[in-house]
Predict the 3D structure of the following.
Amino acid sequence: MHMHLDALKPGQSAIIDRIHAEQALSQRLSALGFRAGKKLEVIRQAAFNGPLHVRIGSTDVIIRLLDAKAIHVHLLSNQTESTTA
Amino acid sequence: MKRVALLGMPNTGKSTLFNRLSGASARVGNWPGITVDLMSAKILLGGHIAELVDLPGLYDLHGFSDDEHVVRHFLSHHPVDLVLIILNSAQIDRQLSLALQIRALGLPAVLLLNMEDEAKRAGITIDAQAMSKQLGMPVRTISAKYGQGCPEALQLAAQTLLQQPNLVTPETIAGKLEMDNVIEQEMHQIIDRTVHFPIQLNHSLTDKLDKILLHPWLGLPLFLLSVFLLFQFIFTVGAPLQEGMAWLFDSLRSEVLEPALASLPDWLNGLLLDGLYTGFSTVAAFVPIIVLFFLVMSMVEDSGYLSRAAFLMDTLMAKMGLDGRGFVMMLMGFGCNVPALMGTRVMRSRPMRLLTMLTIPLSLCSARLQVFLFIIAILFPPSQAALVLFSLYMVSFGTIFITAILFKNKFASREPFVLELPPYRFPTPQQIWMRGWQEVKHFLARATKFIVIGVVMVWLLTHLPTTAVPASADTWAGSIGRFFAPVLDPIGIDTQLAIALIFGFVAKEIVVGSLAVIYGLQGDALSQQIAANIDWVQGMSFMLFTLIYTPCLSTIATLKSESKSSGFMWLSLAWSLGLAWIVSFLFYQSARALGY
């Protein structure tokens, strides 16, 4: 199922399809390890619709919903096990 | 002399390694064309003296932040004989790109894989030899925190330096910095062949802590509670130490200095004892609390909790046109506003940076803390002390919020908020001590300079002309007080306090010392005199004004140099002065109206 990262719920994992952001943001995302084909998991979200806490590879990142929208993902079908590789 | 550059991503322990390698010899260097302070140190490398330069932490040589720009500029304008690249072993999969970028520039380099212990705990093993072969550069695992592998790393660096016949010129590097991108592919290949990742990473301890500390509802209250407890701790442990220091200075004066200086002329005796010594010793009594404060702050800073605070606070900060990083800068401002202002360089959008810079001078810094500790101890019972101090911190936050909300449309911005969340780290006692001590040294250096000049001037103002009774209305200080009376009377600030405020404009470190000189008293006698002169409402109004009206000259200078705009500096100055008066006025008049 195709969606944007900001629509993911805590505990859900997904694979990055592509990143559609202006240059500065996409550079920063790629420096932090966000690339097409990589798996990520949403660990939690801060209160009042706050930023997401995302784990990608061995890196933990916090990202605002507005910026998470730039990341196109597809949900992993098996959502029972939510730990990340 | 050979030049060695230390390069690495943020949160890799780069500064820890630099401190370890440089020992006490580090100083701020002056590099043409570079606006940031770069630390450098002379170190012994293979029997020769080499210069070690600590470059700013960066994610990517090709990035757009100020820090990344500084590194590029440095490498393309200053010859470098060797680059020490420090990477976090636990995140080697994405950090290796930096080593490849340096290699692509043709710069001789040694790769240091730090935080091996953290990687091990996460179940990651790295075959350093195989990686060295693939990369074509020496690779060594180290622990900057505990020092393991550091001597060997230096040896490796010395060997590598010897093997370099010809230097890559900065011009070549400037050319090569233009091209890249093959790097990505090669990085994946090397990682695939040399690094083994466990199927599931063991983040367990950090995860467990995060579950509690980042809890959607409990996280923020827990954060505030821990800040409050830290203050309580500083107060409880620090207060007896402070009394001990005051007693020590008192005895030194009555037992040693007064007899020794008795033969001097009256005016010189007065200047030395009532001016210099009284001013200086009153301030010096606060050193234990300042030391404690910095020890605790550096522990919190190194632990990884501050990035969590950014996560918890971002939603609220977004409403004010700021982001979570701004909140962290404000917390840093609680130590000292100057480095916090400089820290805003991580923000790329100028409006957001300016808005953050406008709020930082309202952070209650350690110099103001010292004034408050002094006044609170005099005017409030010990049972209320921590609460009063905490309320001042809340006012500090409050003024920050008001400022940001009022100015957010003037400085509207849209900057991405993407931050790395490092695992919790438990700084070693040595690490805390080293950082804390550095901060204290800076504080003392700044404080002594201002205090010596400041207290002498205060003494002169309160003792001239010679015909007037010291500190009376006939002195120059008295005239200044009368001049400002129409503005300061409505907020309950008398002549003596007004003089202290004027000097506090230069640096808050002087305020307490100048009060001692103004009253010509020290220790308990000074406290009793102040308690007799002003009540708690006046004291609180004085503290509110001191909190808000402008931190110090250094902060103003930094505001100007960082914003590169005098207009912005004046805006900040005028705004904080105006806000200080309004807040003090509202407090003082309503407290009086309520009958206090």
In short: The two ends of chain A are 20 Å apart (CA to CA). Chain A touches chain B through 35 residues (CB under 8 Å).
